[in-house]
Amino acid sequence: MSVAKWSRLRSPLLVTGAALALVGLLGVVDYQTGWEYSFSVFYLLPIFLAAWVGGLVAGLLVSLASAATWLAADLLWDYHLHVSAAYWNATVRLGFFVIVTAALSSLRAARERREELFQFIVHDLRSPLSNVMAALRLLPKQAANAGNDEETDLVGIGLTSAQRMLTLVDSLLDVPRLESGKLPLERRGVPVAELVSGAVAQVSLLARLKRVSVAVGADDEVDTVYADSHLTSRVLANLLSNALKFAPSDSTVHVRTRRLDTDEAAFSVRDEGPGVPGEWAGRVFDKYGQVTARKAGGSVGSGLGLTFCKLAVEAQGGRIWLESEEDEGMTVTFTLPAGADR
Predict the structure, then answer these.
(1) Which of 85, 183, 294, 323 is 20 to 30 Å from 115 by CA-CA measure?
(2) At what angle do helices 229-246 and 149-179 cross, to 10 degrees?
């Protein structure tokens, strides 16, 4: 068996084994407490775990073990139950357990198919969107050669919007992978200046269109972080885009890097926008929590950007938090291990 195949099987096997052990424990407790106390609901817990994680076969196995364990307790109790009645009860219980298992496994399969279809559709959006962006990048040169500043600005707006759509598509693809720990990381020593300059370059067009300047302040004590370069650059660009989105015209977005006493490098992005209401400050990193906040009048993002940032930072061993006061701007800070390697 290959390593990859064993890795996929390990979790279901462990959960199924734990479910069987739990059935055995329930059988002992069931017998010790006597026939006056019913444990029928508790047997559903290991069946649910096995069916949801391990699938139909694992659920049926645990269902059979649960019915057999319950039957053994019935036969061992001395309360004058006829043997035929005990086997009849066990058959009825097994039928009930099988129905529950089939329903759970079907629900799990439907959920997986829905997620696969969602990922397939979102993934296929990247290619045409990338082609649109490639075409848009060529148009400003032609418009500039023709001396048409208005067309140049219009193309810039279209390119910025396409970039936002591409960012959202990437977040839709990567958030589930980060949540499940399946997104591969390529961590190495990355220069802090390279990360910051690359992220600022990605949002330079948006900053120009919004008439917002980006000021960078770097601490000389930290020059390298141990991180995934691509993932961290996306985090910084996402935070900068979010800051620019809510920054008023002719204001400044500040990017600052500094070294902490915990041997970490801290990256901060601060805007001069309306900030986040206090009641929403602790929920902006929740998936789709921002959408609810917007409906309530909060000035926040799309619902996945900050969630992606949180998951990407934590996957690299860092922390992320937000500081904000309404009408006084917002600062988002995240940390990564300082140094070239670990």
Answers:
(1) 294
(2) 120
Distance CA 271, CA 187 (A): 29
Q: How far apart are CA 255 and CA 207, in angstroms?
A: 13
Give the mean pLDDT of 206-214: 87
> What value does the mean pLDDT of the chain take?
80
Angle at 167 between CA 238 and CA 179, to 5 degrees: 80
Burial code (b: 16+ CB inside 10 Å, e: under 16) for 111-136 equals eeeeeeeeeeeeeeeeeebeebbeeb
Structural tokens at position 197: 């300059």
What mean pLDDT is predicted for residues 325-333? 83
Residue with tokens 């969630």: 307
* Alpha-helix runs per DSSP H in 34-183: 40-49, 56-76, 83-145, 149-179
CA distance 159 to 141: 13
Q: Report d(CA 196, CA 232) in Å as an integer.
A: 10
Cβ neighbours of residue 18 closer than 8 Å, sequence gap 6 or more: 46, 49
- In angstroms, the Cα distances linking 105 to 79, 100, 248 are 37, 9, 51
- With a CB cutoff of 8 Å and minimum separation 6, the contacts of 324 are 275, 276, 281, 330, 331
Max CA separation in the chain (angstroms): 99
- Placement of tokens 């190495």 in the chain: 188
CA distance 49 to 12: 9
Give me the numbers of helices (H) and strands (E) for the chain, helices first please. 10, 7
Beta bridge partners of 216: 255
pTM: 0.64
